[in-house]
């Protein structure tokens, strides 16, 4: 019975002391840590305790000793200079990093705009390549010159009795190559499209070359008429 009474007394004492052990923790303010954080971030450049940093962390704190006159309180003091520190404030590094990121984002936006402009330009070119708007202006002229070449070569073969076959075959071959080139330029669709400005220039070149063939055919007709 005495043992039970003794144990109960111990438990009561423990329970009585429990609230004091579980009391809420209060907020503490560490001014030394605050100075260190501010110095590393955005200032002011200051550390505490000053003599501790002067003797043990002089390198990164930039601490220096100086004499201060203050009457009976004159004596050596410690001050901290960021320019003498070997680490400096990290805020300029962060500012530089932010500026670098901003420039990268600006450059990426410029590249995006440039690519978008190229894409729109390519869409316009694709639309231009899908339809041949210039062939109609040359079709009648091409048909007229082709008729002249065909009739002229037939006349040469008939008039010469086949003796001008070599010259006729050469002109026919060149004319076939030229006509195939015109047909290729006129094609539209994937892999064949040209912008209409380029088509027009190609048709002009073909027209000039076809005119040369017409002249050579006419000259050959004159030879056939004169010698046969």
Automatic annotation (TrEMBL):
Q: Which positions carry the signal peptide feature in this UniProt record?
A: 1-24
| Coiled coil residues, start to end | 98-125
UniProt keyword Metal-binding present:
no
Give yes or no: UniProt keyword Aminoacyl-tRNA synthetase: no
InterPro entries, per the entry: DUF5045
Q: Mind listing the UniProt keywords for this protein, alphabetically?
A: Coiled coil, Signal
Instruction: Show where the DUF5045 domain sits.
Output: 26-121
Q: Give the Pfam families listed for this entry.
A: DUF5045
According to UniProt, the name of this protein is: DUF5045 domain-containing protein
